[in-house]
Amino acid sequence: MKGRFIKLGGIAFATAIGFATLATMVQAQTDVIKERQELMKSQGAAMKAINGILEANGPVADIATHAAKLQETSHKITDLFPAGSDQGDTKAKAEIWQSPDDFTAKAKALQNESAMLATAVAGGDMAAVKAQYDKVGGACGGCHKIYKAK
Ligand code: HEC
User: Fold this and answer.
1) d(Cα 63, Cα 83) in Å, to the nearest integer?
2) What is the pLDDT of residues 101-149, one digit of tens each?
3) Mutate to test the pocket of ligand 1, among 144, 145, 146, 147 (most ligand atoms within 8 A of CB)
4) What share of the chain is helix, strand, coil (3-state, %, to 5)?
5) Is the pLDDT assigned to residue 17 strictly greater than 80?
6) Whose CA is nearest to atom 36 of ligand 1?
7) What are the backbone angles phi and psi of residue 45, rounded to the nearest 5°?
8) Which ligand 1 atom minimizes the distance to the CA of 114?
9) With a 6 A CB cut-off, is 107 part of the ligand 1 pocket?
10) What is the set of domains in the chain, with CATH numbers?
């Protein structure tokens, strides 16, 4: 009888640990999903701000801070898509984890295009900045088209 109690107690204990671990894992994934969605929103805000400045025809220098933001965030993208974070309230498609190298390449494309945007802004030529802004937009879309659900 005594042995039986101990055994049951052991199972209950193991189950409690199991749930606690699962809850922690789900929480960690929810956090990383939220974090990358916030990062993406900030990128959207930066693009919108740049577009507004372009439509107002300048001042070009005001774009610098937004270009810097895009450059900074572009380097953080891949870390925010750890394996297993396809579960939950997310539009991230499973293809991200099936083609990690290509996904990384798409993030790298944004790193390059946003760096060139910063360079164009520093150059001060409005037409060059506009052309490079379109390329940055292309880098966003190039990834979304394949890896983000509508
Ligand atoms: C390497 C791939 C990749 C690149 C590059 C990328 N995105 Fe995303 N973006 C995603 C994925 C995947 C999601 C879905 C994230 C989720 O729901 O977990 C997303 C989501 C978003 C969202 C929706 C956020 C929300 O939940 O409300 C916005 C806005 C966004 N991206 C803007 C941008 C902009 C602007 C750029 C370019 C400056 C960009 N993204 C570049 C992959 C990318």
Assistant:
1) 35
2) 999 999 999 999 999 999 999 999 999 999 999 999 999 999 999 999 9
3) 144
4) 80, 0, 15
5) no
6) 140
7) -65, -40
8) 38
9) yes
10) 33-147 (1.20.120.10)
Q: Which two tokens stand for residue 59?
A: 């001042």
Here the tokens at position 52 are 């507004």
In Å, what is the CA distance from 84 to each residue of 11, 21, 102? 27, 14, 18
Share of the chain above pLDDT 90, in %: 79
The total number of residues written for the chain in this structure: 150
Q: Which residues are paired to 148 by β-bridges?
A: 92
The greatest distance separating any two alpha carbons of the chain, rounded to the nearest whole angstrom, comes to 85
Calculate how far, in angstroms, residue 144's C-alpha sits from the geometric centre of ligand 1. 6
DSSP code per residue over 38-94: HHHHHHHHHHHHHHHHHHTT--GGGGHHHHHHHHHHHTTTGGG--TTTTSSS--B-T
Ligand 1 touching residue 66 (CB < 6 A): no
